[in-house]
Protein: Neutral metalloproteinase
Amino acid sequence: MPCPRPTATSPVSPGATVPGPTVPCAVPPHVLERIVRNGSDDQRSWALSTLLQDSSHRTIRLHNAQLRSAQRGVVPPRLDPDAGPRRTVADAAGTESLPGRTVRTENEPAVDDVAVNEAYDGLGATFRFYSEVFGRDSIDDEGVGLLASVHYGDHYDNAFWNGRQMVFGDGDGELFQRFTVSLDIIGHELTHGVTEDEAALMYVNQSGALNESVSDVFGSLVKQYALGQTAEQADWLIGDELLTDAVQGVALRSLKDPGTAYDDPVLGDDIQPAHMTGYVQMTGDNGGVHINSGIPNKAFYLAAIALGGYAWERAGRIWYESLRAPQVRPNATFRSFAAATRRQAGVLFGADERKAVTEAWREVGIAV
Structure:
């Protein structure tokens, strides 16, 4: 989910919002803004600090993405594509300096820090999913090493992909747990790197909502694959381990039932629509990228349930190959992406799968 980029660093009153462009992060900006309005003094302070710390993330991510794009075809792929992940976990030690001190690298044993081990395992689980299911060699499909920093900032209520590495805050301990605790959040954020590499979906309006949805879809599939769950067995929640017991909710988002993940006095209510009739027209949050993503999320869930079995085998393959299809442009709309999934379903599998995908999109108000 996106992190906001404030337009100023002056103090924000409890009733104010923090406008500005966004960059993919775990907790959406409207949730943090609600905490600024509704939380305790400490909670407001931590949420506001998170919003303000995120101010430079968009610039950094775009810069890193441009560097990676310029290096494609110049930096040769590694010689052994079957060598596995090359993980590095660093400790930011409560600072905002990245990456921090290296504390664990590939093939080293677990350490005493649970956040370090969770980050290491989450990077590995995401790498294995993309490698074993889709034959992809890391985020860029050229074996790029996976770097993560833990203990970022002071009570930092977020996690994000900055175009080069993962960054995890420890949460405030009152509303949010440490962000390494959630495998689907790790899978979600790393998938932003995959999307950046394949379709380069613009982070605005429907293409931005698709960007967020793709990360939710594959974040959920990373967890399902790690647990060996079928589509029927999966919870289809994103960030279900992240909320503390003090929050009235089950997760940050639900692909099965968008709009039902939480309803809390501090966080507010989940406002994701599940159908185009609820599509939110707005100028904030880059056109509502983290809100309207509920619509394609629901479409994927419906397709996965209709196809049955392990969701990554057919529904996941269809969405993955659609992301890679030349027909999907950076400014893709819901309808154009839906058309790509319909096409891929027929090419990869057959008429029954094409019908299931078509019906899934129809049920959320998108005819293809």
Residues 92 and 100 are 4 Å apart (CA to CA).
